TrEMBL record:
This is Cytochrome bc1 complex Rieske iron-sulfur subunit. Signal peptide: none annotated. Residues 39-137 form the Rieske domain. PANTHER family: CYTOCHROME B-C1 COMPLEX SUBUNIT RIESKE, MITOCHONDRIAL (PTHR10134). Iron-sulfur subunit of the cytochrome bc1 complex, an essential component of the respiratory electron transport chain required for ATP synthesis. The bc1 complex catalyzes the oxidation of menaquinol and the reduction of cytochrome c in the respiratory chain. The bc1 complex operates through a Q-cycle mechanism that couples electron transfer to generation of the proton gradient that drives ATP synthesis. Keywords: 2Fe-2S, Disulfide bond, Iron, Iron-sulfur, Metal-binding. PROSITE patterns: RIESKE (PS51296), TAT (PS51318). The lineage of its organism: Bacteria, Bacillati, Actinomycetota, Actinomycetes, Kitasatosporales. Its cofactor is [2Fe-2S] cluster.
Length: 141
């Protein structure tokens, strides 16, 4: 034997279970390359009930790597929460500010704009709509 360790079946299965479903997760956390396109949804994903995001509110859907905000007029906006700096999933929402755990980039959850470097590219906006009372985010173009 060459001394390589082989992962157990349990380790492989646990990794598969923890991988984000619905095609919205980050591909891999690549080193900081603002020129690279961050992961985008590969298929529409149902996020939750329309009433989960009130007028003027913002909601983070961690499992789908999407943040949704609703303007005072009721219109919705959605953004991928995969950091544009290094591809890390952002799982922290402070009011309307998303904070990346990898390098501290901050984004406005309502506009996707960068609030704090090292990221320089805004979050990817996703088409979002309400279908049969459910919020659905779709792949970006």
């Amino acid at each position: 034997m060459s001394g390589r360790t082989v992962p157990s079946r349990r380790t492989v299965l646990r990794s598969a279970v923890l991988t984000p479903v619905a095609g919205l997760g980050p591909a891999a956390c690549s080193p900081g390359d603002d020129g690279a396109a961050p992961a985008r949804p590969t298929a529409p994903v149902e996020l939750g009930a329309d009433g989960e995001v009130a007028d003027g509110a913002t909601k983070l859907y961690r499992d789908a790597n999407v943040v949704v905000s609703r303007a005072g007029d009721g219109s919705l906006k959605a953004f991928s929460t995969v950091c544009t700096h290094a591809g890390c999933p952002i799982g922290k929402l402070e009011g309307t500010k998303l904070v990346c755990p990898c390098h501290g980039s901050e984004f406005d959850a309502r506009t996707g704009e960068v609030l704090h470097a090292p990221a320089t590219t805004p979050l990817v906006e996703l088409p979002v709509e309400v279908k049969q009372g459910r919020i659905v985010a779709s792949p970006g173009t």
